[in-house]
Amino acid sequence: MIIIDAGHGGVDPGANGHGVTEKDWTLEVSLHQYHFLRKLGIQCKVTRDRDVLLTPERRAALVKQSGAKVCISNHYNAGGGSGAEVIQSIYSKSKLAKQAADALMAAGMPVRRVFSRKGTAGDYYYMHRLTGSVETIIVEYGFLDSAIDMKKLSIRSFRLQLAEEAALAAVKYSRGVENSLYVVQSGAYYAKDKAEKLCEELKQKGYEAFVRRMN
Where would I find the SPOR domain in this sequence (predicted)? Predict the structure, then answer.
């Protein structure tokens, strides 16, 4: 089980830059990860599926009580800088965070750093401090106020690709997979109806199958 957290929401907009509000993009990529993993037959949940405010306590409780092994908390940065960041708990062995960072880098997003931050009561970030035994990583996919990052992030298909790579890294980690996770493609069509027909045929034969649009 994996739980996906769409950072911010409601009256908490998060970061802003180049006309983009963080809460909107975190919800976009989180819902994409959810449907992406469900189509692969992987159990997952989300902390929010619409634009609502969750208090830190409520958000952390949803993660802690989810029964998940891993949580991906999705975010975008601002404040001067460039590149993705992955933040782990001070008690983590860093394997999950490193796998996620490596996946983002392989997909074409430079990674600024993988780090943890200590606070006065343990972890600085409540998503690490209050989520119990669920191993949580905070993924900052880039800086909204960086022209360099936004040149890539403004392309929706690239944002979704990064989200998929982070999700697959979490799956590999949760299942103890060291090497690559392979997805088999059975066919590719320009006509949607043909793709859906093949998908249905595969399902009838007992295979997990889904249609994915390639932009």
Answer: 176-215
* CA distances from residue 203 to 148, 182, 197, 208, 209 in whole angstroms, order as listed: 42, 19, 10, 6, 6
CA 10 to the chain's CA centroid: 20
Q: Three-state SS for 66?
A: coil
Q: pLDDT tens for residues 15-38?
A: 999 999 999 999 999 999 999 999
| Coil, helix or strand at residue 72 | strand
Work out the end-to-end distance of the chain between its first and last CA atoms, rounded to an integer number of angstroms: 29
Check: pTM over 0.85? Answer yes or no: no
Q: So where are the chain's domains?
A: 2-174, 184-215
CA-closest candidate to residue 141, choices 160, 126, 125: 160
- Which one-letter amino acid corresponds to residue 12? D
Rounded alpha-carbon distances, angstroms, from residue 77 to 9, 135, 188: 15, 21, 36
Residues 26, 140 contacting (CB under 8 angstroms): no
Domain 2-174 CATH superfamily: Zn-dependent exopeptidases (3.40.630.40)
pLDDT tens-digit series, residues 103-159? 999 999 999 999 999 999 899 999 999 999 999 999 999 999 999 999 999 999 999
